[in-house]
Design goal:
Organism: Nonomuraea jabiensis
CATH class of the largest domain: Alpha Beta
Largest sheet: 6 strands, parallel
Number of domains: 2
Protein name: DNA-binding NarL/FixJ family response regulator
Structural class: alpha/beta
CATH topology of the largest domain: Rossmann fold
Distance between the termini: 36 Å
Pfam family, one: Response_reg
Radius of gyration: 18 Å
Oligomer: single chain
Domain HTH luxR-type: 144-215
Order of helices and strands: EHEHEHEHEHEHHHHH
CATH architecture of the largest domain: 3-Layer(aba) Sandwich
Domain Response regulatory: 2-122
Number of helices: 10
Number of strands: 6
């Protein structure tokens, strides 16, 4: 796995590189700003980019903008975004462009090496990884009159784990239920959120987007 890191904090940038190299991963370049990051993407064509949300010069959304541009240049690039805080708009914006090969984690997750590495590999393999704290805070902010109120407590648990990017087998293991039970809950979630099957919409992604957007 070839990785480029874009992070303006030199301690975190080098710490990430050391951690990943210790895990036998190939960090081909690091960059302190968006321009250096995009130059590295063009030069190395990595498999994965790890990108800070807030980067120079304004420290607002430069990382997100650069990540979108990197994916435009290299559509198969997996992107794992790191943020110091829960920033809902960035999480929903990422998923709105498609959930494959995308992740959004809080920086504190890096210190939990097993969780961080699991999320990194999930994104690299084509999946989605949304930080559990992001999911929890969005759930706490959700409006009382939205369609999520139709869901049972167990269905909300399943949807929360779907939002983290877990597949059915992983959800079943986390909740100590069978795969069949998870499949049944997901069918019920789709029905209660009025998500009919179509050729143009991935209902799993649509359910997660509704879940995240309900926190606005």
């Amino acid at each position: 796995m070839r990785i480029v890191i874009a992070e303006d904090d030199p301690l975190l940038r080098e710490g990430l590189a050391l951690l990943l190299r210790a895990e036998s991963l190939d960090v081909v370049a690091t960059a302190p700003d968006p321009d250096g990051f995009l130059t590295a993407i063009d030069a190395h064509e990595p498999d994965v980019a790890i990108v800070d949300v807030r980067m120079p010069p304004t420290h607002t959304d430069e990382g997100i903008v650069a990540a979108v541009e990197a994916r435009r240049r290299q559509p198969e690039l997996a992107v794992l975004v790191l943020s110091a805080y829960v920033e809902q708009a960035f999480a929903t914006d990422l998923l709105a462009h498609g959930s494959a090969r995308l992740g959004y984690l809080l920086k504190e997750r890096v210190g939990r090496v097993e969780e961080f590495m699991g999320a990194l590999h999930r994104v690299a393999e084509g999946g989605t990884a949304i930080d559990p704290e992001v999911v929890a805070q969005l759930l706490a902010r959700s409006r009382p009159d939205n369609r999520l109120d139709r869901l049972s407590p167990r269905e909300r648990d399943v949807l929360a784990l779907m939002a983290e990017g877990l597949g059915n087998a992983a959800i079943a293991e986390r909740l100590f239920v069978t795969d069949g039970a998870v499949h049944k809950h997901i069918r019920s979630i789709f029905a209660k959120l009025d998500l009919a099957p179509t050729d143009r919409t991935d209902r799993r992604v649509a359910a997660v987007l509704h879940y995240l957007e309900s926190g606005k």
